[in-house]
Specification:
Number of domains: 1
Shape: globular
Structural class: mainly alpha
């Protein structure tokens, strides 16, 4: 796997996470609420990562949830996700 941009994002993993968060109404609204009126900083980054971790735990507890299964299968390696880029994507929509 190379580190080239994918669909305008840093890499495929970042693009995949942003795609799923943007295409599920509940996840989209939650992400928009998290960035509303906030500055991009370490606290917001941590809040987003905690949210992704909660989703990952929900997936592990209920692997039959197709939406979460598809998201984490598509993303693959969470450690490669540029969470700042994902957050900025939601901030740009304000």
């Amino acid at each position: 796997m190379n580190n080239e941009k994918h669909e305008g994002y840093k890499n495929r993993e970042t693009w995949a996470l942003a795609l799923h968060l943007n295409n599920d109404e509940g996840l989209y609204l939650r992400c928009r609420e998290m960035v509303k009126g906030k500055e991009l900083n370490r606290d917001l980054e941590q809040e987003f990562m905690d949210f992704i971790d909660e989703l990952k735990e929900a997936h592990e507890e209920n692997p039959k949830n197709e939406a979460l299964k598809l998201m984490f299968d598509d993303v693959g390696s969470l450690w490669r996700v540029d969470i700042v880029e994902v957050i900025e994507d939601f901030m740009d929509k304000e």
